[in-house]
Design a protein that fits this description.
The complex is a heterodimer of chains A (about 120) and B (about 140).
Chain A: H1 8-15, E1 29-31, E2 40-55, E3 58-72, H2 82-92, E4 96-106, E5 112-123
Chain B: H1 7-22, H2 24-46, H3 59-62, E1 64-67, E2 79-82, H4 89-94, E3 96-98, E4 106-108, H5 113-136
Antiparallel strand pairs in B: 1-2, 3-4
Helix pairs in contact in B: 2-5
The chains are: A alpha+beta (about 120), B mainly alpha (about 140).
């Protein structure tokens, strides 16, 4: 009997419309690792899932804690920027709630990094 | 029954409860009790067999601690983090791009403290309630 549900598909579905395809023809939305050519991309990780509602010997609703890491070669933190578009897209998805947005910084190669923490709930 | 019957005793009891909850020693004990299950879980995750680190040595797990800020105005707060020997813990928690010669850049992210908090926050609240209940016992 199924006890948990994967959130990866839902996270990807929420984020893909925010991005144009990269030069390889793929949406720059990747699970754990991205190795394409895009100058703006997101990596998602829904690593932790826990029962929220339990009934009749099985999990009914599960809650996931996910991280979305956005990387860009330009500073995309202003009003109407990609960062706010990502936040809007995530909060607009059913069962999603962004709990924190953190500007992690800019590394030596010039990549800006912003982290979104979110909770995702779903029926099993 | 007159309004005053038992009210003074009840009021007195509330005052005692308030004093106990404000007591810095009780507060510190409650905060430490809250932090313990989270710290233990974070250490487990970061340590050998925790599944978070690729090659866990236990050094990062050992560096995870809880600390009450010395600022007296923040007596209702306890911080959980890494000591100096675990300086790289914050990098792993938030993630970073790793560059190596002749290899594509790699994103490395190994959160330990936030998953521990998510998993153990109910246990943390229960632990604090247990301490406060014990402190209030003589008032019951």
């Amino acid at each position: 009997m199924k006890s948990f549900t994967s959130f990866n598909k839902r996270i990807r579905a929420a984020l893909v419309p925010v991005f144009n395809d990269d030069d390889d023809g793929n949406a720059p939305v990747a699970h754990l690792q991205y190795s394409g050519p895009a100058n703006q991309y997101v990596i998602f990780n829904a690593g932790q899932t826990m029962p929220e509602v339990f009934g009749s010997g099985n999990n009914r609703v599960v809650r996931g804690y996910a991280y979305i890491d956005y990387f860009s070669k330009t500073d995309d933190s202003g009003v109407g920027s990609k960062v706010s578009q990502i936040e809007t897209a995530l909060n607009g998805a059913d069962g999603f709630k962004v709990t924190q947005v953190t500007e992690v910084g800019r590394d030596e190669a010039g990549w800006y990094h912003t982290e979104f923490s979110l909770t995702v709930t779903g029926h099993v | 029954m007159a309004r005053g019957d038992g009210f003074a005793e009840f009021n007195d009891m509330l005052k005692k409860i308030s004093l106990k909850v404000k007591d810095p020693v009780v507060r510190e004990q409650a905060l430490e009790a809250m932090a313990k299950p989270i710290v233990d879980e974070a250490k487990r995750l970061a340590g050998p067999g925790g599944g978070v680190m690729d090659r866990p040595t236990g050094k990062l797990a050992d560096s995870i601690v809880a600390e009450i800020p010395s600022d007296l105005m923040k007596k209702s707060q306890i911080d959980i983090g890494w000591t100096e020997s675990g300086w790289y813990g914050v990098k792993l928690e938030k993630g970073y791009l790793h560059y190596a010669k002749h290899k594509p850049r790699e994103f490395i992210k190994r959160p330990q403290i936030r998953p521990a908090y998510n998993a153990k926050r109910s246990a943390a609240a229960d632990a604090a309630i247990k301490v406060l209940r014990k402190a209030l016992e003589p008032i019951d």
